[in-house]
Amino acid sequence: MEFTTRHRILAKDASVLSSLNPGSLALVLSSPPYPMIPMWDETFSLQDGRIRELLSGNQGWKAFRAMHDVLDRVWAIMAPLVMPGGIACINVGDALRTVDGTFMLYPNAERIVAAFSNLGFSVLPRIIWRKSTNAPNKFMGSGMLPAGAYVTLEHEHILIFRKGGKRVFSGDQKALRRRSAYFWEERNRWFSDLWDLAGERQLLNGRAARERSGAYPFELAYRLICMYSVQGDLVADPFLGTGTTALAAAAAGRSSIGTEIDPVLAESAAASLREQCSPGKIANSINRRRMKEHLSFVEEYRTRKGELKHRNTCYDFPVITAQETDLILPEIAGLEETGGDDDSLSLRHRPWRDRELQPSFAGA
User: Fold this and answer.
1) Cα–Cα distance between 197 and 265 in angstroms, integer?
2) What is the distance of C-alpha 222 from the center of its chain?
3) Do the bridges between strand 234-237 and strand 25-30 make them parallel or antiparallel, or are there none, so unpaired?
4) What is the spatial distance between Cα 49 and Cα 41, in angstroms, rounded to a whole number?
5) Closest Cα partner for 159 from 239, 92, 230?
6) Could you count the other beta carbons within 10 Å of the beta carbon of residue 175?
């Protein structure tokens, strides 16, 4: 049951991805620069000089539209690369900004929904990512005096789009899909429209990368990859940043390709990927956590409702549904770097095992 995935990080803009074969991507997963958030003003201005002029001229709405024009060009590159039934997940936050003395919200999420709709994608239910905050004051403006205060944005959007109808699996793909199943209890948690995840960056490489990135948590990327692709699929991130998408894809047994125009971030992403994908690291850590959580769920379920009806064939522990019986958690068993002009990482995967947990499987 061994298989190989390939991971490429390109220190270039997303236009280089146009060389990929049409329909080769199962999933596009990305968090682009957010229009009208000051930390990304310069990034957008380097792509379109008009943006700097519009911002300095206090023309907020025109700057907002020009920034999304930059993103639209990337979405147009990605659209033909997505396979029929493939998915695009875009994490974005709306922007709050005062321009020329006027405070307002710039609706980035709705603008991206319009862009993907215009490209022919179907809009699926979105996820609200509620970001934990330690701020004691959940308002902005005049405090206790009406009506000059504003609610605080404590969430971002995970927008989900599908190209055409449902993805069709045939032949060997059906077995691969079953191997890529998630646990019943994970399904119930992951397919909620509200995720409460801390915006951790514990896997980023280096202070400079952290200061220049708005990276989403590893768990967010990992869930989406497990939900909307199967093992061996190709996942792309045209705004790779510090490489969270690539790392999550590797841990989940998917291939990845990502572009990052900032060479500092691209270098950091490549370094983190090489370090974390060594055998015994990130994939094993995630698999061990998922397995422990499942075994705890089994014990709790037995206490409340009795025995589970099915058993997983690989690990010989109980599961709720027949769809989980072929589930396999892939570990990284080997790593090879190609080097040269086509710098990439090749990972060898096999079914994960754990000597500490293994004795408990048969009794679970």
Assistant:
1) 23
2) 6
3) parallel
4) 11
5) 92
6) 11
Q: Which of 125, 191, 186, 201 is nearest to 161 (CA)?
A: 125
Burial (CB count <10 Å: 0-12, 13-18, 19+), residue 357: middle
**Global model pTM greater than 0.90:** yes
Amino acid 338: pLDDT:
76
Q: How far is CA 314 from CA 61, 176, 243, 319, 352, in A?
A: 56, 14, 31, 12, 10
- Residue 93, CA atoms < 13 Å, CB-side half-sphere: 20
Rg, C-alpha atoms of the chain: 22
- The number of residues in the chain equals 364
pLDDT digits (tens, 9 = 90+) for 6-60: 999 999 999 999 999 999 999 999 999 999 999 999 999 999 999 999 999 999 9
d(CA 93, CA 128) in angstroms, rounded, equals 10
Residue 350 structure tokens: 């096999």
- Taking CA atoms, 282 is separated from 6, 130, 166, 198, 286, in Å, by 16, 25, 31, 19, 6
- Helix (H) and strand (E) counts for the chain? 12, 16
Element (H, E) at 85: strand 82-92
What is the DSSP-derived secondary structure letter of residue 261?
Answer: S
Q: How far apart are CA 219 and CA 259, in angstroms?
A: 21
